[in-house]
Design a protein that fits this description.
Layout: H1 11-18, H2 22-27, E1 31-34, E2 53-58, H3 64-74, E3 81-86, E4 100-103, H4 110-120, E5 125-131, H5 133-136, H6 141-152, E6 156-160, E7 175-181, H7 195-205, H8 209-215, H9 218-251, H10 254-269, H11 273-295, H12 303-316, H13 323-352, E8 354-355, E9 368-369, E10 379-382, E11 386-388, E12 395-397, H14 399-416, H15 420-425, H16 430-439, E13 444-446, E14 450-454, E15 460-464, H17 467-480, H18 488-499
Parallel strand pairs: 1-2, 1-4, 2-3, 4-5
Antiparallel strand pairs: 5-7, 6-7, 8-9, 10-15, 11-12, 13-14, 14-15
Length: 500
């Protein structure tokens, strides 16, 4: 955690920053960004009684949990929707639009942060705190560009002495409070068209009768307006059709495309920045899921580990869908791939080798209750895997057995270099073969990796067909429980001696 550039915004200064925009914020419908949040102190000045959206960015991974905790406390039971992003703001780009950006960036990088905000957030109103020297002493090319940019945009600059004199972290530095609105001529949700003029013209002509209509441009204007409406409506329908075709083709799911399509159609009822951002986020989430599913990495994970991975992915899916973000995500998967596979192996091992009843007073090696020794044996005995039918003869798989059998297959595929997805598509998984054989009332059979025997009491015996895979399994288990698993040769001698 680098405290050198960490200067939390004093409460009084935060109120000064927010004050000119308070009426807009209290009306609601605003999208707010804080790009270098620290502990989030600046955000406490925001009104909480209006339906606004707040996106918060912070780079420091050590400070980020405290920031999230603060935001949950401050905005709990309010109408403000909060999203947090742990990343470098200088690399933060997004398709979402913001109405307001409140900034207290690191003083040393203040010029870079404000220039990035002006470049990135078209149409936003920005209030930013900088060290006054950034503007008064423009000795770098970056500072010179900032000064020229602020002049072109007619920015307001207020210099304040001793603003941090009584702050959490004190400094007597003079600061510059900058207010600037970034123009956006290409895109707007404001009703600033000339439709109001047409309505006023209609009211003025009501008392003048038909003659006035003949001698004015009223009819011509109405026809032109109608023609424009038809053209725009046609464009809208074409765009809607293109969106539907694109979503259906890209995500291979009519249901997914429809849910996203509804979000976009809903935004047409009363277009707003909030609805636009919702549509952008929904689209990005679908795109992230396409990457998630196409990579097929998660299909190799066992049930619990996959669920944990999917929870982490839900956080990733809130990030903007850019090539750099996708590559970073795939790189993180690659870096942690083997650890996650090992976690899956541990999960299967611990579900089979239950803790013994005297585990509280026993040694570590005795804590585990297994078939013959403290390792996963060639034969796995698992209870509550099958259930007997109403007529007392036929068996069927318990619902929870599917996850366990699929998990075992995924581990075996990883150890053998095979692909679980291939088995799944060809209905050759242990679960599918077991289901098919039980339907034929066959209780002993073989699958890709195991010999299976089922019993009426609900127990299933699974015997490894390839003992080399079992040895690889146990060698990974030994990394986590080195004092519990004996040498394979010792275990083999134990089994041989027991048979004699």
């Amino acid at each position: 955690m680098d405290n050198f550039q960490f200067y939390p915004t004093p409460s009084e200064l935060a109120q000064i920053m927010v004050k000119p925009y308070r009426a807009e914020l209290e009306r609601g419908g605003c999208c707010i960004l804080e790009p270098s949040a620290g502990d989030g102190d600046l955000l406490r000045a925001l009104p909480t009684n209006a339906s606004n959206r707040l996106d918060v960015v912070e780079l420091d991974a050590e400070r980020f949990p405290a920031l999230e905790a603060n935001l949950k406390t401050w905005f709990k039971n309010t109408r403000v929707s909060v999203r947090t992003y742990q990343c470098d703001y200088l690399t933060y780009t997004c398709a979402k639009r913001y109405t307001h950006v409140f900034m207290n960036p690191p003083f040393v990088d203040g010029a870079a942060h404000l220039l990035h905000a002006i470049k990135t957030h078209r149409g936003a109103q920005i209030a930013c705190i900088l060290n006054a020297e950034t503007l008064k002493n423009a000795f770098t090319h970056e500072r010179q560009i900032l000064g020229a940019t602020l002049a072109d945009l007619d920015a307001q600059v207020q210099y304040i002495q001793s603003a941090f004199a009584f702050a959490k972290r004190r400094t007597n530095v003079e600061i510059a409070l900058i207010r600037v609105r970034v123009p956006d001529s290409e895109f707007s949700f404001e009703q600033n068209e000339n439709f109001a003029d047409l309505k006023a013209q209609s009211i003025e002509l009501e008392g003048d009768g038909f003659a006035a209509l003949e001698t004015s441009n009223f009819i011509a204007n109405r026809v032109a307006e109608y023609d424009a409406f038809v053209r725009e409506y046609e464009d809208l329908i074409k765009t809607a059709r293109r969106l539907w075709n694109r979503y259906s083709a890209a995500y291979h799911s009519a249901d997914s495309a429809m849910s996203l399509y509804r979000i976009l159609l809903n935004s047409l009822e009363a277009p707003s920045l909030l609805k636009f951002n919702d549509g952008v986020e929904a689209t990005a989430k679908m795109a992230w899921k396409a990457i998630f599913n196409a990579h097929q990495y998660a299909s190799r994970l066992t049930t619990k580990t996959r669920r944990e991975f999917e929870n982490r992915f839900e956080q990733v899916a809130t990030y903007d869908f850019t090539e750099s973000n996708v590559r970073l995500f795939l790189q993180s998967i690659q870096a942690n791939a083997f650890d996650n596979i090992k976690a899956s192996i541990f999960e299967v091992f611990e579900s089979v080798c239950m803790l013994s009843a005297h585990s509280l007073t026993s040694t570590e090696q005795e804590r585990w209750k297994t078939n013959e020794s403290n390792l996963l044996n060639k034969k796995i005995i698992k209870n509550r895997m099958v259930r007997i039918g109403f007529f007392g003869s036929e068996l069927s798989l318990e619902y929870t057995a599917y996850d366990f059998l699929n998990d075992l297959d995924k581990i075996a595929c990883f150890l053998s270099g095979k692909q679980f997805q291939v088995l799944y598509k060809e209905n050759r998984t242990t679960a599918e073969i077991t289901k098919a054989n039980l339907q034929k009332n066959e209780w002993i059979f073989e699958t890709e990796f195991f010999k299976i025997q089922c019993f009426k009491k609900g127990t299933m015996h699974l015997t490894w067909l390839d003992e080399a895979l079992l040895d690889r399994f146990n060698s990974i288990i030994a990394e986590r429980y080195p004092n519990m698993i004996p040498n394979r040769t010792t275990a083999a001698k134990k089994r041989t001696g027991a048979k004699k």
